[in-house]
From TrEMBL:
Name by which UniProt lists this protein: Beta-xylanase
Top-rank taxon, per record: Bacteria
Residues of the full protein shown: 31 to 380 of 807
Entry similarity comment: Belongs to the glycosyl hydrolase 10 (cellulase F) family.
Lineage, top ranks: Bacteria, Bacillati, Actinomycetota, Actinomycetes, Micromonosporales
Residue ranges of every copy of the GH10 domain listed in the record: 17-346
Length: 350
């Protein structure tokens, strides 16, 4: 009995997880139990970090005969895609365009808080557009027919619903730097590269009725009105216990009414490292359960994806939220936590 089987037995949605290429690498010291579990448990896989721009294009393109020559590194992504193919799993590609994965060769400048940020003026607007187009087209093209769903643009809004500053805005003045143009173009280029892939916009903090959720809604409506090929909206669903998830199904339905599919794309629920038993684990199960229920309640909700499936390998506790590293559904030794059982129960009544 697996989560994928439970999902199939219930409403027939797909159920997946992000996985890390280093742990399924047959040539290095991969982790066999991790690999076997990832293969068996899920019908959907997301390469956690292997498709982001800084990973796939580690060196600056060069110019030859009026064209950019890119030095791509597809090896990590290929490993995960091959893995999923071998196991008959659908793949979701995270993310084509994301402010947080600009390669290190792009020149930096001091940001508002003094920390380095990519300099939007490092290249001319035309070059910025060419880099963006190549990034989107070449990546989708490379995996045409193999990656079924793409997170085309990720996290384009700040919390208050304004555009998040990025290197692409200056290439799309309206008349001041603006995000709409690069977002619409990215969807069009992705669609031209693989007409069968489903394309979605991805965001966090939009599960409830927040300013960001309202801005996202207006954007999706505008894209649909302009016939931009957008097929879905991804709700990352990184949550903590105190958030609750009130109104999530309503939010999913509201977006679905615009004619798009909706997905849970990166779910985890952080609790304290010390919470190895007892009440927090049950509360965590409750939040997972509510999210699954919300998806099942909305016909347009087609998959649920976890952002890591074991506490042994989760971005929470290492990259961020130190001290909160028990956010996933399996323990360090891959034993089911209450959240796992609760999800299976919601999906299939097991
Ligand atoms: O692989 C290197 C390793 O060689 C090195 O020793 C180590 C030291 O810092 O870093 C390792 O890379 C880290 C990588 O995760 C793999 O663990 C990066 O520093 C770290 O920045 C990276 O974090 C990822 C983060 O996105 C930023 O790219 C997380 O794993 C990943 O889970 C997270 O995922 C994002 C989604 O894409 C978008 N939504 C939010 C979500 C969480 O931030």
């Amino acid at each position: 009995k697996t989560l994928a089987a439970a999902a199939r037995a219930g409403d027939g949605i797909m159920f997946g997880s992000a996985i890390q290429s280093a742990l399924i690498d047959p040539d290095s010291d991969g982790d066999e139990t991790y690999e076997q579990r990832a293969a068996a448990e899920f019908s959907l896989i997301a390469p956690e970090n292997d498709l982001i721009w800084e990973v796939t294009e580690p060196t600056e393109p060069t110019r030859e005969g009026g064209e950019w020559v890119h030095n791509y590194a597809w090896n990590r992504a290929e490993e995960v895609v091959d893995f999923a193919d071998r196991n008959g799993q659908t793949i979701i590609g995270h993310h084509l365009v994301w402010h947080s994965s600009v390669p290190s060769w792009w020149p930096r400048m001091p940001g508002p808080d003094g920390k380095p940020i990519p300099n939007p003026e490092a290249y001319t607007p035309q070059v910025v557009r060419e880099f963006l187009q190549d990034r989107v087209e070449d990546t989708v093209n490379r995996f045409e027919g193999r990656i079924g769903y793409w997170s085309v643009v990720n996290e384009v809004f700040a919390e208050n619903g304004s555009w998040r500053p990025s290197i692409w805005q200056r290439a799309y003045p309206n008349p001041v730097p603006d995000s709409y143009g690069y977002i619409a173009d990215s969807f069009r280029w992705a669609h031209a590269a693989d007409a069968n892939a489903k394309l979605y916009i991805n965001e966090y903090g939009v599960e409830g009725n927040t300013a960001k959720a309202r801005a996202l809604y207006d954007l999706v409506k505008r894209l649909r009105n302009d016939n931009v090929p957008i097929h879905g909206v991804g709700f990352q669903t990184h949550r903590k216990l105190t958030d609750g998830l009130t109104g999530f199904a309503d939010m999913l339905r509201r977006f679905a009414d615009l004619g798009v599919e909706v997905y849970i794309t990166e779910m985890d629920v952080r609790i304290h490292d010390t919470a190895t038993s007892g009440v927090e684990l049950l509360q965590q199960a409750e939040v997972y359960g509510r999210a699954v229920r919300a998806c099942l309640d909305v016909a347009a909700c087609k998959f649920i994806n976890l952002w890591g499936f074991t506490d042994a390998h989760s971005w929470i506790g290492t990259v961020f939220h130190i001290g909160w590293g028990r956010a996933t559904v399996l323990t360090n030794t891959l034993a089911a936590k209450p959240a796992y059982n609760r999800i299976a129960a919601e999906l299939a009544g097991w």
